[in-house]
Amino acid sequence: MRSLLYTIGSLLILLLSHDGGFTGAADAEHTFRAADAEHTFRATDIHTHRHRRNHGHRRGEEFEYSALSCRAYSASLDEFGAVGDGVTSNTAAFRDAVSQLSRFADYGGSLLFVPAGRWLTGSFNLTSHFTLFLHRDAVLLASQEESDYEVIEPLPSYGRGRETDGGRRFISLRFGSNLTDVVITSENGTIDGQGEPWWGKFKGGELKYTRPYLIEIMHSDGIQISNLTFLNSPSWHIHPVYSSNIVIQGLTILAPVTVPNTTGSTLVRNHTDNLKIPITDSCTNTRIEDCYIVSGDDCMAVKSGWDQYGINYGMPTKQLLSRRLTCISPDSAVIALGSEMSGGIEDVRAEDIVAINSESGIRIKTAIGRGGYVKDVYVRGMTMQTMKYVF
Length: 391
Description:
This is (rape) hypothetical protein. There is one protein chain. The protein has helices at 91-101, 196-203, 307-313, and strands at residues 3-8, 11-16, 22-23, 29-34, 37-42, 47-52, 62-67, 73-76, 85-89, 110-114, 117-121, 124-125, 130-134, 138-142, 151-152, 169-170, 174-177, 180-186, 189-192, 215-218, 221-226, 228-231, 238-241, 244-249, 252-254, 258-260, 267-269, 279-281, 284-294, 300-303, 317-328, 333-337, 345-356, 360-364, 374-380, 383-385. It is mainly beta and 391 residues long. The chain has one domain (38-374): Single-stranded right-handed beta-helix, Pectin lyase-like (Pectate Lyase C-like, 3 Solenoid), CATH 2.160.20. It has a 19-stranded mixed beta sheet that branches. A four-stranded parallel beta sheet has the order 12-17-20-23. A four-stranded parallel beta sheet has the order 28-30-32-34, with no helix packed on it.
């Protein structure tokens, strides 16, 4: 096995050639051997399910999807009065649907089917043993109205908050806490954050609270987000935090890299600071694979809290496997470790990553007083084209 070894302080980065590295079953277990260490990652199996709608008003519709769990009960969003015209607010319909379906959590779980259409909505909470399934021609449009997003307390590992004084933040478009077995999947349907007004308000200092994310799930176990296109989040796109056993798979995630300035004659870096894409934050056993990502910020960020808040909370990100990603990030990193890493980052594996027209491939970021650590980072088979930096 050919290898190239870098040592940076206490950090070990091992770049492995294509003839060595991971061994094991395709989607169940991966064993990585480097030097005298052996690391085994176990990722929850994903199975293909054939689902026939046999509850609610419409019956007999059948579709296949790959997921952690099949569900015993299902309903369609339009059965709750939703209208997919791109104009009507469906926040109440989504909330009612999830509330009704949550009753089946202990009886085989439930699935909410979102038909073809353009479904405008504000935030709503998810529930356990639940699948949100989007038709391939379904588009969830995030409301641009601040009033459609509850204001919640800051994350304990971030304390004062990320963007505004006081730390309070708008709840995410899709939010869940203390959940088990949650699937958000599709046949490549779309979740559009419609973030441009939020970017402008952030740039102009007009927001009182931190911008919402598209998906945030915290203190949860068994999460799958797959086969979707994400566009234009107000801030971060996908944020699992304080959670375990997570699969992020088959996503296309697009955030604009440049936008015309006010003269309309030149291109400048857009107002999408912190449009990082999948953020794994103080999580254990996460798999991110088969994704295409374009961003003006880091394509994938690994975090574990901020300064003294993160140090005190003390929950590292560990056992992270990323593979078969194609990433474009002209102004930032393809994979960033930090800079909010005060709880620690360890056991990170990346393989078969394609980085194109990006500033750096793997970047370790920190700051004075941040604390924490980064250790046991292994990279294999990373292809880089037109890069400013490797590290």
